[in-house]
Design a protein that fits this description.
Order of helices and strands: HHHHH
Number of helices: 5
Low-confidence stretches: none
Helix content: over 70%
Strand content: under 5%
Structural class: mainly alpha
Mean pLDDT: 85
Shape: extended
Radius of gyration: 17 Å
């Protein structure tokens, strides 16, 4: 439970930091250019991205184009929800 909450908070903060990056790019350039998941992965580790990118079917390639902020925030919130503290009910 606690590990899920820790990972959830880390992923949520990562998603919010990507959102801040997107807003800074928008303010700087005047164009909305959100970071895609594939771009973020390619920026972190290009070698692994190049190896895996050619193996994915078109649906996987569409996932690479998803907005990184939305995906990360969604996963973070989902992890926090699934690992929340549950109140025990007494009979």
């Amino acid at each position: 439970m606690i590990l899920g909450r820790i990972i959830g908070w880390i992923v949520l903060i990562a998603g919010l930091s990507v959102l801040v990056r997107d807003v800074f790019v928008w303010v700087d350039t005047g164009h909305w250019l959100p970071l895609a998941l594939g771009e973020g992965w390619r920026g972190l580790d290009r070698a692994s991205f190049d190896k895996i990118a050619g193996l994915w079917p078109p649906l996987g390639k569409a996932a690479y184009m998803a907005w990184a902020c939305g995906v990360l925030i969604g996963i973070g919130v989902l992890l926090l929800y699934l690992s929340r503290r549950r109140v025990r009910r007494h009979r």
